[in-house]
Amino acid sequence: MKFAILIIFAYLLGSIPFGLIIARLHHIDLFKVGSGNIGATNLSRALGKKWAYLCFLLDVLKGAVPVIIASNLIGTQPSPPDLFLWLTVGIAAVLGHVFSIYIKFKGGKGVATSFGIAVGIYPYFIIPAAAAFAIWACAVLIWRYISLASIIASISFPLTLIITIAVKQNWHFSQLWPLLSAAILIPMMVIARHRSNIKRILDGTESKVFQKTTSPNHETPD
């Protein structure tokens, strides 16, 4: 019952469109600005970087808070069923962000909230999360596509987790398979949400960072 309530809480928390709320507090309809996305990048266009950073942080917390609460319920030595419940809480938060009940099941791409989940599922996802962030930063510097960097980082996450489980002496695939399943499922969801970005990259119309642009299509993790 506690986990059922927590899963509902995670979805409702994840559904809060912080970017949209911040914009509306400044009398701006974010749906009508730039790409129309409710994430940090579009908010940056409307209000500036400081509000975009705040939005990104809040979206990260939407994923981190529910799974941290869940970790206190399952204890320090979770069994596979416990891990499944733990991850279900995190997935509910991502689904809330991507399909928000408050805005007719529209939403963002889930990168920031997924990162929050990775941070909150300690210690299992910390190394893959740190590696994914480093890969994301390098990909941004090399190709200057935020969307491409997010996709590459998402793909790297389960690969890094597999290596981490194989190296750790007290970690076993037979026990941690729910973590690996989620590490594959969530990036697949994130990549699917970047379909339009992939198309623009292939067409050569996706905007890059660190350069002046008038394109409305530039996206970042949201």
Quick structural summary:
The chain has 222 residues and is an all-alpha fold.
Q: Would you write up a description of this structure?
A:
By secondary structure, the chain is an all-alpha fold. The chain has one domain. Helices cover 69% and strands 0% of the residues. It is globular.
Which helices and strands appear, and what pairs or packs with what?
Layout: H1 2-14, H2 18-25, H3 40-47, H4 49-74, H5 80-98, H6 111-120, H7 126-143, H8 146-167, H9 173-193, H10 195-203
Helix pairs in contact: 1-4, 1-5, 2-3, 3-4, 4-5, 4-6, 5-9, 7-8, 8-9
Please state the average pLDDT score.
89
Q: Percent of residues in beta strands?
A: under 5%
- The stretches of 5 or more residues where confidence is low (pLDDT under 50) are 213-220
Order of helices and strands: HHHHHHHHHH
Q: Which terms would index this structure?
A:
0% strand; 10 helices; single chain; globular; mainly alpha
